[in-house]
Structures are given as C-alpha cells and as structure tokens.
Amino acid sequence: MNYEQSRSLYDRALSVLPGGVNSSVRAIQPYPFFAEKGDGGHIIDADGNKYIDFAMGYGPLLLGHDLPEQVQSAVQKRASEGPMYGAPTEVEVELAEFVVRHVPSVEMIRFVNSGTEATVSAVRLARGYTGRDKIVVMESGYHGAQESTLVEGEGSETQPSSPGIPDSFAEHTITVPFNDEEAIHDVFEAHGDDIAAVMTEPILGNYGIVHPVEGYHETLREVTEDHGSLLIFDEVITGFRVGGLGCAQSKFGVTPDITTFGKIIGGGFPVGAIGGRAEIIEEFTPAGEVFQSGTFSGHPVTMAAGLETLRYAAKNDVYDHVNTLGEQLRSGLTDIVADQAPEYTVAGTDSMFKILFTRDGPDEMTDHCESGCRQRAECSRYEYCPKDGSDVADGQTERWERLFWEAMKEQGIFLTPNQYESQFVCEAHTEEDIEQTLEAYKEAL
After folding, report:
1. Residue of 263, 354, 387, 409 marked active site
2. Is 4-66+318-444 assigned to CATH 3.40.50.1820?
3. Which one is catalytic: 234, 257, 391, 433?
4. N or C: which end of the chain has fewer CB within 10 A?
5. Above pLDDT 70, what percent of the chain?
C-alpha cells in the first residue's frame, strides 16, 4: 500500500499538534494513516487505501460509517435549525426517557460531553452524596483523562500516573486488582467508612478485554451496600453494545447505583452521561448542591444522533446481527489460535473482540470457551486467561503493536493499534468481511 499522503499530513501535523495527533492512542509508529472517509464497515485513508474497520471510532459506531436515513435526517435537521441554543430542547428529554426505559439502574440522567466528563462528574457526585472522599478503582482500569483515577500503585499506596497531577489526588484513590474478591474485602475492612464509591467497568474494555469471574460483581454490590458506599459501573465502552439496550449491567444481572455512558449514546458525536437512582442524580445542581454544568451538554445534534441510533437499533435487529457476527469472528479466531498460537487468548462478547498475546496456555484444549474467554473455572485455559489488567500487560505487547498490527493493516484490516483497546463489529459489517478478516489473521499470526 502507498501511504505518501498520510506521511505528508503527519509531517505537517508534527509542526502544529503535539506528537502530530489530538489523542495519544492515534500516535501509531512510524506514523498513522489519515482517514479520508468511512464507507459502511470500511474506512478509506488519504491515499485511497480501503480497510475493513474494526476500530469503529473506538466504539461509538454501532451502525457503521453510513448512517441510516432516519439517523442522517435527524442530524441534518437539527444542524440546519441552528448549532445550539443555550436552552433545553425536547430531543434531550426524549433521549433521557429512552435510556430510563431500558437501562436497569437509570431513573434519572445528566448528559455531558465526553466519557471523561461523565466519570469526573460521577466521582464528584459520589463524594458529595456520601460525604466521603475515597474512591476505589481497578488496577489498570481506565476511566478517562481525569485526576482522581490516573493513578498507579497498589491499595492505598498510590501516586499519580501522569505529571501535572498533585499527589493529593492519589491520596484519595485506592486500587485493587480486577476479579480479586479478597482484595476488595481487605480494602473495605481497612477503609470502609471513608469509601464513597467503587468504580469499575463491567468488562475491562480498555486494557484488553477481561471478563469478570463468576460472582465478582455480586461481591462488589454486596460490599458497597454493607458499607454505605456506591457502586459505579463505567459503561462508556459497554453501554448499548454489551447486553443490547439494557447494557452490560443487564447481561450480568447486577444493578449499580450510578452508571456512566459515552460513545454509542451519542451516535458518533461527542457525548457523555451520568445515570442512576433519582435520589442520587438529583444531588446535581440545580436540584441539589453538587455542581455540574456545561455549555454544550445536551447538544441537540448529539441528542438527535443518539436517540435515532438507539431507536434504529431497537427496531431493526441490530444487536442480533452484530452479536452473531461477533460470535462467528471469535469462534473462527479460537480455531486459528488453537492451530497456530495456542498460548494466545481470544476475548470478547457480543460485538467486542480481541486476541490477547498471552504467553502461556494449557498443553491441550478441553472444554474451552469457544467464542471468547468467559472465565469459566472448568475451562482448560482458566488458569492462563488474564484476570486483570496486569495479566494483559504481561503479554507480548510489543509483538502485537510492532509486528501483528502492521501485518493486519497491510492486508486491509484496521484494528485498534495495540493490545489494550477493544475492537468492535458494526451493523454494516458482513459475513464476507468476517471471512476476509479470519484469512488475514491466519496470515498475520
């Protein structure tokens, strides 16, 4: 493939953008390709190269790049009526009503402008509601570019993971390994009266794809209730992708106190949201005293895109289609890995997927998960499958990024560019796309 135009654009970008990009994950070595346009389940770069797209904007594009007529019309109508108003609109009420009807934990919702803003606001809300300061998060979990969760370390011995964050922020953040029930009990035994909330993704989706072991979320629910703390599910990635319209919390049967959203809820436009029990969400100003506000919150174009995307998904069997293709893809990958790289782990559920370049595996495969790791104790891979983010980080991350990703790109497959971010199937993908992708995996592995 020729990348002359992308290289030229990157050269220009380096002069005016730090690292040549506006989000660090796009800084692919030696340089990223520059997108020109989308085409259904494909993306076309500035040099005219066409790829099957499984990045899907890092998750928001449930329907793919070509919006259905009803979604496109709603977006164009709203944009033609004026970009924004500084006043509420009916469409934000309609989207709120839709979410409240379908998501178990949500009785009331506040829209914001990004997943990061949603998790920042959720942490502030939990602290304001409980009158406590400490937040428990998962080691290697990701909740956006916010000071309270950009920490590293173990337990209460944490420090900021980025320059520019005062140490005092990390003093109030406690980390535990995902899937470690003993660790969560120990933390609450030591700090329970000071913990405002536990915040976790239902499935780790930004550090590989790691499922909860059986009973883990139930333990979080029980422990937080026993100590008067809140349970926050960060469903920015899984929301309206895993578990359909009920989100991952409905799939796992555990109802948090607060849920954060982003990505699909805005139909591909900038968005975030914080939903939960009415008595908690009403602590936000102006109903309560926890300050939260934003000029672009509830933006009418975003609200229209999100509402019509979810309506379309509800009426057109979108989840059946993407989940079927996702299972077909993961099942095919499982067979390929068993034959060519048995130490690797196929992960994912519904329309999410990933091969994790883990280093060890069982001598033989018996009763293994056939379409993505489910953390089943009876599976022959159970002791080898990643249980938390550190297990993923111990894999062959350099091989994934420097050799495998490039090999897939050269075959016309666009994956998220490292071992950590999830990959996604969209409504516009076809069985032919899946078959072509599986052939590319065989070659690249």
Report:
1. 263
2. no
3. 234
4. N
5. 100
